[in-house]
Specification:
The chain is built from six helices and seven strands, in the order ββαβαβαβααβαβ. The protein has a seven-stranded mixed sheet, with helices on one face. It is α/β, with parallel strands linked by helices. The longest helix has 14 residues. The protein is globular, with a radius of gyration of 17 Å. It has a single domain, classed as Alpha-Beta Barrel (TIM Barrel), CATH 3.20.20.
């Protein structure tokens, strides 16, 4: 893979293959896969939701990125001449593992990438955005690799609402998300819970559930009709 240094921030991430990386609010987002085990998080935002065109967000094409490729993209991002944020500083929103697919379906690769990124850019904040529909032991893997924060799309306060909104496949469901959040909290990871204001979903009850599970923060996301 050849990395080229961009001239400016707009238009996505020129030094990454299409679909591997995109930017939002100065943060670098990395996609590991298009594979989903529930409604993709972008689609839970409603039929009217679209990613900002300037972000450079597209689905992955070609092979899924290796850990080394992801680490090199991060290194190139922070090596940019026009970067206005200070790497490893409080103004740096960091790197987020999130794309069209569920990143924790590639948990081993994500953890490998985290270790390689740590070697190149030690102080960069790393976060994973997930639906939490994975085995609870994945939380320990993330913590051991050096992930200190995750955002979990809880999106409902009961199994019925969750099934309607997320439509999980593969045998996992609402209970698995709760167990994953608890495991992440116990592993020392800061967990932010989120919920889209989907019609019919009790966001207040979802907030109470998230905080009861040990989330340090909770955020409601707008629903686009």
């Amino acid at each position: 893979m050849t990395l080229t240094k961009p001239d400016h921030m707009s238009g996505g991430v020129p030094f990454a293959r299409p679909g591997v990386a995109y930017t939002l609010r100065n943060a670098l987002y990395l996609s590991l896969t298009n594979e989903c085990n529930a409604t993709p998080l972008t689609r839970t935002r409603g039929p009217g939701f679209t990613m900002p065109s300037h972000s450079g967000f597209v689905q992955l094409s070609g092979a899924e990125p290796t850990a080394n490729e992801l680490a090199r993209v991060v290194d190139a991002f922070y090596a940019r001449d026009d970067l206005t944020i200070a790497s490893s500083g409080e103004s740096d929103p960091g790197v987020v593992f999130a794309g069209y697919g569920e990143p924790l379906l590639r948990a081993e690769r994500l953890c490998e990438a985290v270790r390689e990124i740590r070697q190149l850019r030690h102080g960069v904040a790393l976060r994973a955005n997930t639906n939490g529909l994975v085995d609870a032991t994945v939380a320990g893997m993330l913590a051991d690799a050096g992930v200190r924060a995750i955002t979990v799309a809880l999106n409902a306060s009961n199994p019925e609402e969750y099934e309607r909104v997320m439509a999980p496949v593969g045998g996992r469901g609402f209970t698995d998300v709760l167990e994953f959040i608890q495991a992440a909290v116990e592993a020392g990871i800061e967990v932010e819970g989120t919920c889209v204001r989907t019609p019919g979903v009790d966001t207040a009850a979802t907030r109470r559930l998230a905080m009861a599970l040990g989330c340090v923060d909770f955020r409601e996301r707008e629903y686009f009709k």
